[in-house]
Amino acid sequence: MFKKILVPVDGSRTSRLGLEEAIKLAKDQRAMLYILHVVDEQGVLQGPSVSSGMFIDDFLRTMRENGRTIIADAEAIAKKSGVRAKSLMVENFSGPTADAIVSQAKKLKANLIVLGTHGRRGIKRLVMGSDAEGVIRNTPVPVLLMRSPAAPAPAARKTRKRAGKFGKQTSGGRAMPRGSKSIRSAMI
To answer: What is the full per-residue pLDDT of the chain (188 aa) written as tens digits?
Structure first.
């Protein structure tokens, strides 16, 4: 049974999905819900704003104010649902956001972390990173991932499968060995 559930929020649609699921679980388990917002100052201090003369203090102040708003909104949703909730905001000066989440989970002795995730794969994940993956790799606490529904794909192009030259199946102009269903379904 879960007694302490940690849910990080950042104001995105994806984190809202995590929050909604965490609220359901907290209600069902009669658990305390801890709502966490991480102000990621590392990106600001290493980003182009430092060299462009932007006032870092003003920018950080704005990030903190936005964080307080995000937490207040999440806490209001939780309380409206009848769930006991506490909120906290931490500032991350160095290291990945995932490390700050794991640190808070340990400090609070959370039984579960509920995270919204974009479910990025391939190049997008390499470029943008994955806080969810970092949490999973480093926490001793069970993690429940709530994947954001993918944006609707463009209408699939209808192609006719036909036998091409040399006995290979073709689909949309791509030649594949006959009988390779897994390759064929992955490419369509």
So the answer is: 899 999 999 999 989 999 999 999 999 999 999 999 999 876 665 555 454 555 777 888 888 999 999 999 999 999 999 999 999 999 988 788 999 999 999 999 999 999 988 655 544 444 434 788 889 999 999 999 998 776 444 554 444 444 444 444 444 444 444 443 333 333 33
The pTM assigned to this predicted structure is 0.71
User: How many independent structural domains does the chain possess?
Assistant: 2
Strands 4-8 and 112-117: parallel
Distances (CA, A) of 58 to 37, 50, 121, 157, 160: 19, 12, 35, 49, 59
Per the document, the length of the chain is: 188
Residues 28 and 118 in one domain: yes
* Domain match, 143 and 158 both: no
Structural domain including 175 reads 154-188
Shared domain for 95 and 175, answered yes or no, is no
CA distance 97 to 94: 9
